[in-house]
Write a structure and sequence with these properties.
alpha+beta; 409 residues
Length: 409
Amino acid sequence: MMTQQAAFTDFNPMESPHRENPHLFYKWSRTEQPICFSPTLNAYVVTRYDDIKSIVDDPDTYSSSNAIPVLWQNPEPVVEALHGIIPEAATVVNTDEPQHAPLRKVLDHAFSGRRIRQRLPLMRTRSAELVDQFAGAHRADLVSAYADPYVQSIVSDVFGIPAEDNDRVQGWTNDYVTLLNPMVGVEEKVAAARRMHDYERYIDALAEQRRTSPRDDFMTDLVHGTDMVPAVSRDDLHYMFRGLRFAGHDTTRDLMTSTLLLLLDNDRRLWEMVRADRPVLQQVIEETLRRDAPHRGLMRVTTRDVEIGGTPLPAGTSLLLLFGSANRDESRFAAPDEVRLSRANIHEHLAFGSGIHQCPGAQLARTEVRTAIETLLDRLPDLRLAPGYEPSYVASFFFRGLERLEVTW
């Protein structure tokens, strides 16, 4: 637990009170110190909408080279445990132009509208199967019993991961997130690093399968290229596959459960509204993205001396752009803490970023969430929060998501 003073001067999403409710810090920072240095993160946090938007829309001045931490910047024992893994490559989220554009084209093809439409039958089937597994119990945790396995299945299918390998790949993905988290201890990271060798061999084997037996999936795109772009190198293949597999899972799972919490809270007013008028669900999802962005934000580094919000910063300064704060900026969104489905600017939130690095899987995530919630509306219309349930949030550097979502029906 942070001291009261530190809670307003040193943002740390892994600890209380920021873990439970970062919006108290966000509001203080936007008002009092919109460019605020966090000693824990060794970076300036940026909290106002206009400042963040200007940064993501100016990639020449604000490089993405540090957007997420780099595996090989870990402490020496961790790096030693990683020895033998492929050399550090530039994953797409950390890449500036001109290297970024060719990699992005691969992603745009992988997450195209056609690919999403092809997965709709799987989304409906998988969500129904999961409801079948717990419907008779009349009580469930929708994080572990529904959202997590559902998103694993869909993302794995898009990537070309066989269903029987979902749990193994998710375990390795959790290890990858551990290695990227600057708040995790060395011993835990060393154990995760050792397991990454198995993940490397798995990705190589899957790539070799697609080399001889191509399919309509992301791994085939990486191995064979598309009509628009050539195949990527082995290094890029590994970093794109690992990085996007973790990004596509956690953010969608957390968006789904946060949307469900919003629907079921306050005497289920929104749940009943959506039951009566299904198209309203899309507005609820957008307000959830704005109010509780599943991704906290990404890093940038200044390429020259700049001034942001009146604060001068030299070249080489690390910045953490807090999208969750921008989405509740009073200067952009009226009554930002309230749920207002009729907002004229409801789509202006930054939950999926902006500019050249805007999330390529945004539409897939929206479709997954909408489909899964529609299944619950059909199958469990009297769904409600379990008596005594209080939301708690995972300790995560990258994501804001519920630990559990206890419901009854």
